[in-house]
Design brief:
Blueprint (H helix, E strand, L loop, with lengths): L5 E5 L9 H15 L3 E6 L7 H7 L2 E4 L19 H14 L3 H12 L7 E6 L3 H12 L7 E6 L15 H11 L2 E4 L16 E3 L20 E5 L10 H10 L5 E5 L4 H4 L2 H4 L3 E4 L4 H8 L4 E5 L10 H8 L3 E4 L6 H8 L17 H10 L1
Parallel strand pairs: 1-2, 1-4, 2-3, 4-5, 5-6, 6-7, 8-9, 8-11, 9-10, 11-12
Helix pairs in contact: 1-13, 4-5, 5-6, 10-11
Length: 367
């Protein structure tokens, strides 16, 4: 084991929230403790009681707090917000990154008085967490000798799914100047950042525990396949595949979907009847167990190369073959082969151990 360090991780959400960024923050903290470091995990908390979590994992949990304009906490996706506040959010969301900017302000205030940390890891989204850390890094002397790592699941200015107003370029360049390292999950994501700062960018993939309980797979009576994750119209869009299932597949099957945004699936539920089953998100361990029962899994590719869905590693860890499809869905022949148990065209993941949380944490500590 290397030098024991004191590490502060700041994120919008942590366990028990079910999201890739909450998972990354929580798993990083747990594994860093396992590797002998002292870890404080700071996030927007709700009403969840972390007493047992702190004892079991030896992690110190601190609360960033939440404003009346924010609807996301670590244990709640949709807080009740008054109508007039929703109106303010509607008008200010795009031009001021509101209410995300509020968490950045709280991050800056929180960092003003911290002491004794060797590394600070801030996780976006939202990127305003980085903005707050940058302001604090410039202003407060207590951060002068701390190594600051800004971890970015998705880019901000270079995000193909969204295009912020031009003046946010100044904000992005500001925090990129102040940070020591920028970490991104894939090498293709580097192109989404300004060339001036690419020398600071390191590729560190999303980390996953490779110790998981799986079901003993048995071929299902009818082809049974699943999708888990977010979908977006025209970008990671399931509708082409769903139309194909309605109009071109005459045999029985079961398509199980795990998502917290079911809208793009709901409109096809009536036509597919009991062939389509929509389920809400479940904890990762339970999800892996359920996915391991499937004949195969569906991955809907992103239209952009700068973002890759982290669920692919969970798919791999479930032990089931992966059929990767496009939003336009032109993989009909491959799908039929998968339904027959022919997985020759399955998506393979290279160098999978780079995603092991043990190795991921070691990469962070090397910076």
């Amino acid at each position: 084991m290397g030098v024991k360090m004191n590490v502060l991780i700041i994120a919008q959400a942590i366990y028990p929230k079910l999201s890739p960024r909450a998972h990354r923050a929580t798993e990083l903290a747990k594994e860093l403790v396992s590797q002998g470091h002292n870890v404080t995990l700071c996030a927007v908390l709700g009403k969840y009681d972390y007493t047992n979590f702190q004892k079991e994992n030896k992690i110190k949990i601190e609360n960033l707090g939440v404003s009346e304009f924010e609807w996301v906490t670590s244990d709640l996706d949709n807080r009740n917000i008054s109508l007039w506040r929703k109106g303010i959010i509607f008008f200010l969301q795009r031009i001021l990154a509101f209410p995300d900017i509020l968490i950045g302000i709280r991050v800056a205030k929180y960092l003003r008085n911290i002491k004794g940390y060797d590394k600070i890891i801030t996780l976006a989204v939202p990127h305003s967490i980085h903005w707050g850390a940058a302001y604090a890094k410039r202003k407060y002397e207590n951060l002068a000798t701390v190594t600051w790592i800004a971890d970015c699941g998705d880019p901000f200015m270079g995000n193909p799914f969204d295009s912020p107003p031009f003046y946010f370029e100044w904000v992005e360049r500001f925090w990129c100047r102040m940070v020591d390292y920028i970490t991104v999950p894939t090498s293709t994501a580097i192109d989404a950042y300004y060339s001036d700062f690419r020398n600071k960018i390191k590729v560190i993939p999303q980390g996953f525990s490779f110790v998981n309980e799986l079901s003993l797979y048995r071929v299902n009576r009818i082809p049974t396949f699943a999708y888990s994750g977010m979908v977006y119209p025209h970008k990671r869009d399931p509708r082409g595949f769903l139309k194909y299932l309605i109009h071109s597949v005459s045999f029985d099957f079961k398509f199980i979907v795990y998502t917290n945004k079911p809208k793009l699936f709901e409109e096809y539920r009536g036509k597919l009847d009991n062939k389509l089953e929509i389920r809400t998100y479940i904890p990762r361990k339970e999800l892996l167990y359920e996915l391991s029962k499937m004949d195969f899994l569906i991955n809907i590719e992103n239209e952009s190369s700068v973002q890759q869905p982290s669920k692919l590693i969970d798919y791999y860890l479930s032990g089931r073959p992966i059929l990767s499809i496009t939003s336009q869905f032109r993989q009909g022949e491959s799908f039929l082969n998968f339904c027959k148990g022919n997985y020759e065209e399955q998506l393979l993941i290279a160098d999978v151990h780079q995603y092991d949380i043990v190795n991921v944490c070691k990469e962070f500590m090397r910076l």
